# Entry
Amino acid sequence: MKLLSSKQEEVLIGSILGDGYLELNGNNCRFQSQHSFKQKKYVDWKWSIFNGFVKSKPRQVGKGDYRFRTINSHVLTAYHAVFYPDGKTKIIPKMIANLLVHPLALATFYMDDGKRRPDCRGFFLDTLAFTMEDQKLLINALERNFGFKNLRLHWNGDGYHIYFPAKNANLFINQVKPYIISSMRYKLPLAP
# Structure
């Protein structure tokens, strides 16, 4: 029974919080990461992290997406139980502060679902799929584990997402930049 390395675990947690998902397939789960073909290098990077849990290379799906899937694993099924307690709907578990602890997980989450504001050094995590209560759990974990200040929920017309005021930019960049791959650095907040 193969276990996840710490790097695989961090990338998995960041991906689950972002665009990745765990799919029940038979008795166990597999992880899938799918992004637009413009982010091919990012998908290839994730795929390389999951060496030992993949049998085939990423491939183009549909007209513009690119994805890979892992093999089914009881290890992934354990994460599915945490993040999909009803078996279908992804949630933020109450223990998220114990899971989202490493800058690699945060960097992966941001590469999946982060964006910078074009007019200042503020930035967002698109967390629209989660309830407000779940997002508040995330905010508490981010402030506690990474030292961010005054994070808040911000309405964007479609729902709420987590907003990082500009005063958090340097702290954020210093923590995640070593883990942001070159093709995704355009997402980082603007330089001062």
